[in-house]
Amino acid sequence: MLDTWLTRELGLGVPILGAPMGGRAGGALVGEVSRAGGLGLLGAARYATPEWIARECAVARDVGGDGFGIGLMTWALYDDDTMLGAALEQRPRIVSLSFGDPAPFVERVHAAGSLVLSQVNTIEDLRVVEAAGVDLVVAQGGEAGGHTGHVGTLPLVQEILEASRVPVIAAGGIATGRGLAAVLAAGCEGAMIGTALLASPETVGPDYARSRVVEAASTDTVYTSVFDRARNQPWPHRWGGRALANAFTREWDGRDDVARADLEAAYDAADPELGVVYAGQASGLVHDSVPAGRVVTAIAADAEALLRRYRD
User: Which residues cross the membrane (predicted)?
Assistant: First the structure.
């Protein structure tokens, strides 16, 4: 058994968190990750509502029990923290407050009995969230899908581990037992996986998103803000998103002089060549549509076998 601070603190069978992928990680995916022994996190994207959170958490409970988390975008809470209140009503084990300073909200989360997790992309991010009183951090490398930073997972993990006063989880490019074994050997308490789950049948979203991840190579992603502009998503400038390249990115990425109205007119979520599929460089390791629980179980089992080999 892979025994870490994460498994002991949360009573998990495996040291794996399911990433709170907005628009992809709904209740079914969250529940399956938790049922397999990890902890799934619901991805409450900016368009989510309190009713959606309640409904998807009910699904997660039906599938995987009471062990789940909820991920929120910190910057989106500054003007309206309704979604945080809705999340806390569901009594999640973990609330992920990432992409911004969580200081205004940490005490409220702790008072509700949940742990606070923050993803960090730089050493400066670490200092901010530690000062805010978070319980654990995810060192999220630039290989990760969705919104992320620029520093690669391996150098970032080393830097964060050297400096952190709280437990560290790794994310970005981890999709097999080899990846999990590597970060555990480095000193992390577990891994957060996202892209490895994107082709699973439990994901929310169009069918083409699953097939495109299966077909993609690790070189088929692009780091861009063009989808945020096209969908009028006010993400802070410092965080772009890693997505699968398609005709839309080839036409519009890097063209900062283009009017937002033109991008909005060109974007089509129903078309795989004109819509967004946020996915990381681990896409090259996803070869089939495998149920989420089997993905989690296989990663953990392979990591344990590798680490046992080196211990023996």
Answer: none
Among candidate residues 304, 306, 295, the one with its CA nearest the CA of residue 36: 295
Q: Which residues contact 178 (CB under 8 A, 6 or more apart)?
A: 302, 303, 306
* Mean pLDDT of the region 243-251: 97
| Residue 217 CB contacts under 8 Å (≥ 6 apart), including other chains | 283, 284
Q: How far apart are alpha carbons 41 and 43 in whole angstroms?
A: 6
Confirm if 121 and 149 have CB atoms less than 8 A apart.
yes
Around 258, how many Cα atoms within 13 Å sit in the side-chain half-sphere? 18
Strand pairing class (240-244; 146-148): antiparallel
- Note the pLDDT tens digit of each residue in 83-114: 999 999 999 999 999 999 999 999 999 999 99
Q: What is the DSSP string of 38-92?
A: SEEEEE--TT--HHHHHHHHHHHHHHH-S--EEEEEHHHHSS--HHHHHHHHT--
pLDDT at 312: 59
Superfamily of domain 5-205+285-311: Aldolase class I (3.20.20.70)
Residue 311 has pLDDT above 90, yes or no: no
Residues 88 and 109: beta-carbon distance below 8 Å: yes
Q: Where in the chain is the domain with CATH 3.20.20.70?
A: 5-205+285-311
- Classified as helix, coil or strand, 29 is helix
* pTM across the whole model: 0.96
C-alpha–C-alpha distance, residues 311 and 57, integer Å: 39
